[in-house]
Amino acid sequence: MTDTQKPVTDITTDYDIFAPDFIKNPYPGYTEIRESQCPIAHTERYEGSWLPTRYDDVVAIAQEYETFTSRQILVMPPAAGRSEGPYAAVGAPPITSDPPDHHWHRRLILPVFAPQAVAQYEPGTRDLCNALIDEFIDKGVADAASDYAQHIPVRVISKMLGVPLTMEDEFTDWVRGALENITDAERRIKSFRSIVEYFIGEVQSRAANPREDDFITQLMNTEVEGKKVPIEYVLGVCNLMLVAGIDTTWSAIGSCMWHMAQHPEHRKQLRENPDLWPTAVEELLRVYAPVTMARIVDHDIEFQGCPMKAGDRVLMAFPAANRDPRQFENPDEVILDRQNNRHVAFGSGIHRCAGSNLARLELRVALQTWLERIPEFELIDPSSVTWAGGQVHGPRKCMVKF
Amino acid sequence: MNMKVLLDYDSCHGHQMCAIAAPEVFGSDEIGNAKVLITGEIPAALHVKVRRAESNCPERAITIIE
Ligand code: HEM
Ligand code: SF4
Question: Which of residues 19-58 of B touch A (CB under 8 A)?
């Protein structure tokens, strides 16, 4: 039997983040662990990992980058063969980088993600949301996940990178292969190689025919200490743009659509009081934080009574931290004007999401555009909604009628 | 009551929660980290917003002095 098929006996010693119930709705499991004697659970499944669930513990781990390193950041060990072959040196900087290199790996890309820089993508994002809605508005039914949410971030990122929109289906497939079907090692490797090979082509075409003002060209021309950045860095950042920017954001948009379909009172509240949008977006990100990241323990330590060994994997369950009642009042409730919200949907510390301003913009515009054009809608059958989980949590099929 | 804000720039990792809570007082620099827009006395009308900025910063990079 594989690790996913064995029934879980005790969630604090044998959790399975890929168990079908956990994928669908991980929150009761997080709560059970958080309120137990062992708020940092452990499992032997998938070569073993620790699962802290309290806000303070998750944040402490994210802050302690010397003890909890980013040598690996996925919730599963690397697929066999990942460290072989010609692309073994291509990572996903800055997310896979540790200091000291992390600093320049991150610093170089930050300016393109500053709030004032991402604002230029708002009109284009609104247009593409409208175009998607045009496709189904007359039908009275749509899949809010696969007809809507899924198409938004991939198109925004393609535009940002300066690559053709016709790659949408391939990008989506590769990203799902890298993050969602993570128990399928062969598909993971294939997806990774496809991404790298695609961007090698893009880099070569720019080397032959330089373009102006295009993200990949800018990266290729960036210098650090008088030298052009290595090609592995350029390819790694492009890889990261896909894997960090697409599945994450579409999962967040999808979860928010699923929420709005079931909460007419929140749709009304936003319609009557548009000033709520900024806090509403943060609150939805808190409650439906899609991303869990991992760290590798550098040296043997005892952390909160847990004997962690060098090489152990620790899962930073940001979705669990964001619902810790020690940090948030009524944590399972969506309060669109919540005043104190130090949520960590985007992580914490030196690796905190560089793309958060873009993600927020996409989420807000996607919801606003839908709610303007389709103010009233509901789930067709709540039990037919399907979910992805583990690394990234969000709905994959979510039929609504209007 | 007088109020000033202090930003610990080394702890700031650009969440921009401060700018969402109090855009009059916090902005963004060229890499998306916080920039304090009012370095002197904060007008009384903005005190509530500034407190909210402080209580929404995940890195606890903002200190209010009063
Ligand atoms: C709602 C959508 C998103 C969520 C919830 C999210 C979440 C996260 C989280 C939790 C991290 C921290 C990783 C760690 O600590 O190891 C992270 C890092 C990162 N994210 Fe996002 N992300 C989202 C969207 C995006 C987008 C749209 C982009 C850009 C296109 C992006 C780019 C990045 C980058 C570059 C990093 C690495 C930063 C570093 O290591 O210094 N993300 N993201
Ligand atoms: S909320 Fe805190 S970490 Fe974020 S930009 Fe403001 S001061 Fe910096």
Answer: 19-20, 28-32, 52, 55-58
Nearest to A111 by CA among B38, B29, B4: B29
Q: For chain B, what's the residue count?
A: 66
pTM, two decimals, is: 0.95
Look at residue A59 and tell me if it is in a domain.
Answer: yes
Q: Where are the domains of chain B?
A: 4-65
Angle CA A359–A171–A162, to nearest 5: 70
pLDDT tens-digit map of B5-64 = 999 999 999 999 999 999 999 999 999 999 999 999 999 999 999 999 999 999 999 999
Q: Which CATH number fits domain B4-65: 2.60.60.30, 3.30.565.10, 3.30.70.20, 3.60.20.10?
A: 3.30.70.20
Q: B27-62 as b/e, with b when 16 or more CB fall inside 10 Å?
A: ebeebbbbbbebeeebeeebbebbbbbbbbbbbebb
Q: Is the pLDDT of residue A342 over 60?
A: yes
Instruction: Please give the Cα distance from B34 to A228 (Å, whole number).
Output: 29
Q: How far is CA A175 from CA A13, A132, A194, in A?
A: 31, 21, 10
Q: How far apart are CA B57 and CA A135, in angstroms?
A: 40
Cα–Cα distance for residue pair A56/B62, rounded to 1 Å: 18
Which residue type, as a one-letter code, is found at position A25? N
Nearest Cα neighbor of A370 from A155, A152, A115 is A152
The total number of structural domains in chain A stands at: 1
Provide the CATH number for the domain around residue A274: 1.10.630.10
DSSP-assigned beta bridge partners for residue A307? A302
Both tokens of A131, joined, read 């175009």
- The reply to whether A1 falls in a domain is no
A353 Cβ inside 6 Å of ligand 1:
yes
In angstroms, what separates the C-alpha of A63 from chain B's closest C-alpha? 9
- Other Cβ atoms less than 10 A from the Cβ of A169: the count is 9
From chain A, pick out residues whose CB is under 8 angstroms from the CB of B16: 115, 356-357
Look at residue A5 and tell me if it is in a domain.
Answer: no
pLDDT of A248-262, one tens digit each? 999 999 999 999 999
Provide the residue range defining the domain that includes A277. 11-401
